[in-house]
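Data follows
____________
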Amino acid sequence: MASERQARVADRIRVVLAERLEKGLRDPRLGFVTITDVKVTGDLQHASVFYTVMGDEALRADTAAALKSATGLLRTEVGKNLNTRLTPSLEFILDAIPENADHIAALLREARERDAAVAALAATGSYAGDADPYLKPREEEAEVEDEETDAEEAESEDDASEDEAPAS
């Protein structure tokens, strides 16, 4: 877990780099760059800068080359705006968050389509194979219950007729 000081320094580096990139670097290879995150080591001597680039793979490669060539200039800018004894070295890393998000969205879309297909098949489908031999059909159960209730009614009628019969 990053200490409070590491978090403050990382946030300050992110702001300084974003402002400097917004002003421009005079490098035609630099595309539309967004600084997404900065991680700083515990001794504050190394900073990993995560960035994203809008565009295709060629534009990403050109932007990576432009950032690599401008690392010294950007480190100087960070050193001027950071109140630390040492200026951290900068390492620019292309952030894969947008690609991962697109991949996850595609997987979720595919899962929803498969679920819909299974639900459609289940709605119109029937059970495979023969009926379960261990289950008694419901009709027989109903007939047995009817016979039992008829027998109980007959017994209660017999009991009622015995009660009504005159005592001799």
Observations:
- Helices lie at 4-23, 57-69, 71-81, 97-124, 138-164.
- The chain has five helices and three strands.
- The first strand starts at residue 32 and ends at 40.
